[in-house]
Specification:
Elements: E1 3-8, H1 12-23, E2 28-34, H2 37-47, E3 51-54, H3 63-73, E4 78-83, H4 88-96, E5 101-104, H5 109-120, E6 125-126, H6 131-139, H7 155-165, H8 170-177, H9 181-195, H10 200-209
Parallel strand pairs: 1-2, 1-3, 3-4, 4-5, 5-6
Helix pairs in contact: 2-3, 3-4, 7-9, 7-10, 8-9
Length: 215
Amino acid sequence: MTTKLMLVDDHTIMLECLSTKLEKGDNFEVIARAKDGRTAVKLALELNPDIIIMDISLPDLNGIDATHQILKLAPHIKVLGLSMHSDKSHVIDMIKAGASGYILKDCSYKELLFAIDILNKDQFYITPQITGIIIKDLISCGARTTEISHEELSQKEREVLQLIAEGHSSKEIASDLNITIRTVDAHRMNIKKKLDIHTTAGLVKYAIRANLTFL
């Protein structure tokens, strides 16, 4: 049985190399590739892949929020996080978004194939290199020790904040999110009020530290 894959990474060479390698096998078909989170959401809902191999560091919409949006509307799709980030916040946030697995970009191709096979069996896979992160989090009863907490922001506010941090104007954000400039400005005001941060520079720093963007 052929597994329909979708690859999401902002580096063209990564997409091309991984796609070529995977399609050499008889059991995989790469049905889509995306270089940003917003395109990934659109293609995932249109094409319905079995597994999405999702980078976290993506422009416009990061891989964590893209995963959340995809699985909210299509929970049967499985997402495998593939990232260079091994710290606790990235791993836990990706899992909370609904990912079925998480591996690192320096993993072997053999491990990637193993992870895909595990997800195909409706099981969960975390690379052994970061399993300890999950165990420690469970031992601490899931308590988050990071000083950053952005859960009070709505999903749309998170998207607006990422685009602000990436240097987009209100007009560009309105176009990307299909909302009015007035709505963008209202979101911007709400974000500043909720976070008690009143400068763009402060919002950029917050977004980076809260893993909403990866500049």
